[in-house]
Amino acid sequence: MRSIVAGQAAAGPDLEAGLRSALICLKARESTETSAFLDIEPVTLAVNEEPAPS
Asked: What is the pTM for the complete model shown?
């Protein structure tokens, strides 16, 4: 079995990617409930205060 800790396997998606994914899912649900197009704001972590790349 390969280990991420030992550097033998690639790490999975980062926190910003997870937050972006969750936001997209929530906006998709809201969009279907309201029949409206919604903007998706950039995801920003308080650690670096920079928007995540889209």
From this structure: 0.58
Cα separation of 21 and 49, whole Å? 19
pLDDT along the chain (54 residues), means of 10: 65 81 94 94 69 56
Instruction: Classify the C-alpha dihedral 28-31-36-42 as positive or negative.
Output: negative
Q: What angle do CA 26, 20, 3 make, to 5 degrees?
A: 125
Contacts of 27 (CB under 8 A, 6+ apart): 38, 40
What is the CA 11 to chain-centroid distance, rounded? 15
